[in-house]
Automatic annotation (TrEMBL):
<keyword id="KW-0805">Transcription regulation</keyword>
<dbReference type="InterPro" id="IPR036388">
    <property type="entry name" value="WH-like_DNA-bd_sf"/>
</dbReference>
<feature type="domain" description="HTH gntR-type">
    <location>
        <begin position="17"/>
        <end position="84"/>
    </location>
</feature>
<dbReference type="GO" id="GO:0003700">
    <property type="term" value="F:DNA-binding transcription factor activity"/>
</dbReference>
<keyword id="KW-0238">DNA-binding</keyword>
<dbReference type="InterPro" id="IPR011711">
    <property type="entry name" value="GntR_C"/>
</dbReference>
<dbReference type="InterPro" id="IPR000524">
    <property type="entry name" value="Tscrpt_reg_HTH_GntR"/>
</dbReference>
<dbReference type="GO" id="GO:0003677">
    <property type="term" value="F:DNA binding"/>
</dbReference>
<protein>
    <submittedName>
        <fullName>Transcriptional regulator, GntR family</fullName>
    </submittedName>
</protein>
<dbReference type="InterPro" id="IPR008920">
    <property type="entry name" value="TF_FadR/GntR_C"/>
</dbReference>
<dbReference type="Pfam" id="PF00392">
    <property type="entry name" value="GntR"/>
</dbReference>
<dbReference type="Pfam" id="PF07729">
    <property type="entry name" value="FCD"/>
</dbReference>
<dbReference type="InterPro" id="IPR036390">
    <property type="entry name" value="WH_DNA-bd_sf"/>
</dbReference>
<keyword id="KW-0804">Transcription</keyword>
Length: 234
């Protein structure tokens, strides 16, 4: 176990919404962005103080994070941000690739000009961030790009499913983003996918997608070398 995530600053929540989902969403985002790194201890009492809540909604949020494998809960002891499980990451990648290959095939057959324009606009936003090293916003637009495709293919609930199961692969990708040339490669790969969809070339769109999704997995050993305490095969 490493550092303890604590803060004396109260974080305001939307009082028109239930508290537990908001705490879950905020902690999940912090874990996926690696603001909370593997091994960070999450104190229920300190989190309750930070969000101005009782411990019950905090407990519920932590339990949901545990269900996604993002924290390890040791009853009566501590809750700790989990290591990145490589096996879970590979399974999430398999699921996402399987679904998105069908998604891009469907989109290539639709010839939806509005979708093409929307996807290119998202790529343009990513391009603006290339020299800013703003990896959080870059990753956000990456998620937006893929969500737009799921929605256009008429399967937004599958995007929700993929997101729930992708915590480990998302953290691997976040570790990979700062590597020189990675963000530029993502922009180029997104562009290749959209170009193929616009041409109505389902085979090329699937090939571009397959290469795009597999990039981080080819770098697992390098990531493990750079962050030996973050990854586990268990």
């Amino acid at each position: 176990m490493k550092n303890n995530a604590s803060s004396s600053v109260v974080t305001r929540l939307d009082r028109s919404r239930h508290a537990a989902p908001q705490v879950f969403e905020r902690l999940r985002e912090m874990i996926l962005s690696l603001e909370l790194t593997p091994g960070t201890v999450l104190s229920r009492a300190e989190l309750a103080n930070r969000y101005g809540l009782s411990q019950t909604p905090v407990r519920d949020a932590l339990m949901k994070l545990g269900e996604e494998g993002l924290v390890d809960i040791f009853p009566q002891h501590a809750t700790v941000v989990s290591q990145i499980n490589v096996s879970s990451a590979l399974q999430a990648h398999f699921l996402r690739r399987s679904i998105e290959l069908e998604v891009v095939r469907t989109l290539a057959e639709q010839h939806d000009a509005a979708l093409i324009a929307a996807l290119r606009a998202t790529i343009a936003r990513q391009t603006e961030l290339l020299d800013l090293n703003n990896y959080e916003r870059f990753a956000l637009f990456d998620q937006t790009f893929h969500r737009q495709m799921y929605e256009a293919a008429g399967v937004p609930q599958l995007w929700d499913l993929v997101r729930r199961l992708s915590g480990h692969i998302d953290r691997l990708r976040r570790l990979h983003l700062p590597v020189e040339g990675k963000t530029m490669a993502v922009v180029q790969e997104h562009t290749e996918i959209v170009d193929a969809i616009e041409r109505g070339d389902a085979t090329a769109a699937q090939a571009a997608l397959r290469g795009h999704l597999s990039g981080t997995l080819h770098q697992i050993e390098q990531i493990r070398t750079s962050h030996p305490d973050f990854l586990t095969d268990d």
